[in-house]
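User: Show me sequence and structure for the first protein, then do the same for the second.

Assistant: Starting with the first protein.
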Amino acid sequence: MPLVAPISAAAGDSADTASATAPVVVWLRNELRLCDNPLLQRGLQLAKGNLQLVVCLDPREFQATTAFGSPKVGELRKRFVEECLCDLRRRVAERGSRLLVQQKAPEEVLPALVSEGSTVLVTAQVCSEDIAGAAQ
């Protein structure tokens, strides 16, 4: 049973669909919901039954500190993320699939999940700190 009703591909859209054997990996970062997730919708459209949902809890983000020395991700935020992931894992399991959650950097996790012909879907994340760092 699909996680969400897949979007139908347009006729003649075969160049935009993944091979039946190559996995489609959907790397979920902050978009931890199912019902209105365009990234997941696209993954379902491309997957042809071979869809892997993955979340990487990157230690660099969860152990980082701000310029003032305080934790960048506080205890309340960590608890919120844990609760969201528990709910997401349960909802994904109810639909006959599974969510892979790893407490590692994505460059350690993702290469093990992909093979030749795989598709990895991810959204860009930009925050004010990133913009300020790029401007310097």
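Switching to the second protein now.
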Amino acid sequence: MAVMDRRKQVLTAAAQSFANFGYKATTMDQVAKMANVGKGTIYTFFANKEELFDEILHGVIIEMKNIADREISRDKSFFDNLYRVLDSLLEFRGEHELLIKLSHEFHDFGTPQVLEALDKVENVVLEYIEHELNIALENKEIKPCDPQIVSVVLKKLYITLSTEISKYRAPLSKEEIKQYFRLFLSDGLEEK
């Protein structure tokens, strides 16, 4: 078997193990067994569990960036693009087994490595929004603002409207989320 095939085999098994058992409960022995390779084979590619986990997380982040890139259409407005990107990324996060397991593990055990991984994922989203804000500023689509601050507010608002609001009332439809997003951000609450 080719070296790259074995590496891929190890990564696939490790991704499944982390998704099934979480970071804390995944062992190199377990990954070796799932990959049908000797434990030494894993160490020819990765120095330790942390390095293996980082490689898998890097793959997830690349997937997220590709999703965001697919959703951006330069002939659409900033707000239309933002809404589509946030919607797609939130859907991806909600369906991705590894991210779901990591969220549960952090909630239940507070594993520091998991917090660090989740922060990396969140930072990718924030950096992407910040990048798009800078483009919107250059194109004079939005008022002058600090893109770093606004990116955090936009992400938090979207998460509140799409998930957290259901703690208090019936969930909002995608169209309602979009309407509230526009109300708070592009139209404003003040009657003119």
